[in-house]
Amino acid sequence: MSKVFVAMLRGINVSGQKKVNMAELRQLLSDIGLHDLESYIQSGNIIFKADQDADKLAGVIRESILNHFGFEVPTLVLPAAEMDLIIQKNPFQDKDLSKLHVTFLSSQPNSQLVESLPLSSNPNEGYLVNGKVIYVYCPDGYGRTKINNMFFERKLKTAATTRNWKTCLTLWEMAQGKA
Predict the structure, then answer these.
(1) Which among 6, 10, 20, 36 could disulfide-bond with 74, CB atoms 3.0 to 4.6 Å apart, if both were Cys?
(2) Same domain for 126 and 69
(3) Which structural domain range is residue 157 located in?
(4) Are residues 68 and 96 in the same domain?
(5) Each residue of 99-146: pLDDT tens digit?
């Protein structure tokens, strides 16, 4: 029986780099056996059904994009059930959610690396690492924070991609609609 997944592609259609047409991407993913595909905005968010596990799907999608479009795209895939937990476990419910982002990690970070993460230099900001997810609260804007995607990749030595809370909620709602 097929399960619902959320795929997040990192760094496509940003400032004219790595251009990927969403209709063409959906067709490509359909051709490799994914079904009931739906994309959300142009930055590489896809909800779909498949019969494989998330790690295998991430590799297959990454390889298909490389072969078809000619460039590598870091790809994270998670089961819809994980997205549900991410929404439920939000530690910043009492904050302005328009200032909340979620960083998705491609692998579980080493606990010593997590413990060695420095606090933000901005006392208004905060983050919480929860497994392969980091909730990032930045009231001065994500574009201004130093606790961004690159910071976490460098410190935790794993690939990451970040989405704002509104996008996370939309992806969660889309996944719920496919269950």
Answers:
(1) 10
(2) no
(3) 88-165
(4) no
(5) 999 999 999 999 999 999 998 889 999 999 999 999 999 999 999 999
Tell me which amino acid residue 115 is: E
pTM above 0.90, yes or no: yes
Please state, in angstroms and rounded to a whole number, the distance separating the CA atoms of residues 136 and 164. Answer: 9
pLDDT averaged over the chain? 94
Q: What is the pLDDT of residues 134-165, one digit of tens each?
A: 999 999 999 999 999 999 999 999 999 999 99
Q: Which of 44, 42, 50, 43 is nearest to 178 (CA)?
A: 50
Name the burial class of residue 49, with classes exposed (0-12), middle (13-18) and buried (19+) by CB atoms within 10 angstroms of its CB: middle
